[in-house]
Amino acid sequence: MRYAKIFEKRGVFVPFVMLGDPSYEMSFEIIKTLVDAGVDALELGFAFSDPMADGPIIQASHLRALQHSTSMRANFVLLERVRAYAPHIPIGLLLYANLVHRFGLDDFYHACAQSGVDSVLIADVPLCESAPFVHSAQKHQIAPIFIVAPHTNQAYLEQVAKQSLAYIYVLARRGVTGASQTLGQEAKEVIAHLKELTPLPCLLGFGISKPIHVQEALDLGADGVICGSAIVKIIEEELEDSSLVLENLRIFAEKMRMGLCYN
Q1: Active-site residue set
Q2: Of the candidates 251, 258, 257, the residue with the CA atom closest to the CA atom of residue 33
């Protein structure tokens, strides 16, 4: 599995990109820029009309993508291009259950496998309702990813530890996605509990927006970070100037990776 390779070191940087925002061609250029900047893995989103786990910045990226007539099949075509460009980098998807149901659960995971996807996180499927998704994911050799939060109880953590493959997504704080000025200490205890339960790596997300946050995440016990809103904000701020978007993303990714050099 590609994830195993990146977790041979401690300290990985994973950016989030919404496919089709602001267009499929620009998404591809954005992803290429991030790969070339040395990110360790990718988390890619499928646009949805009611993204309940996302804050306003990523909500806006869903809407921009939907306005450009995104579709599930076009998403998978783009994923095939990404996989051809970056054969060794892990690709994870983050999306919502309605999209999977409409496409067809087993057809979805089959398409993931065909397009080179390594993992899938379905944001609005709790563990107690995840069995059909996990079964199909494992059938097609796709790692199911689950989210835990600072307030997650011990019994739920134990179940997540048993069901998870590749890594566990740990929220830095309660609430929805969004960049933060400070990271805080909320996730420290839940990461410590997970480390007692499983050797799987923990990636910290929600609020990661500065190089100092990367170091703070490692100090909390995380094995790396996922950065979404800060990436999407850079895209949003320069929608009319694609070359500036790509340059700003390159600079940002390189600065964030520098935060991993001090662990």
Answers
A1: 43, 54
A2: 251
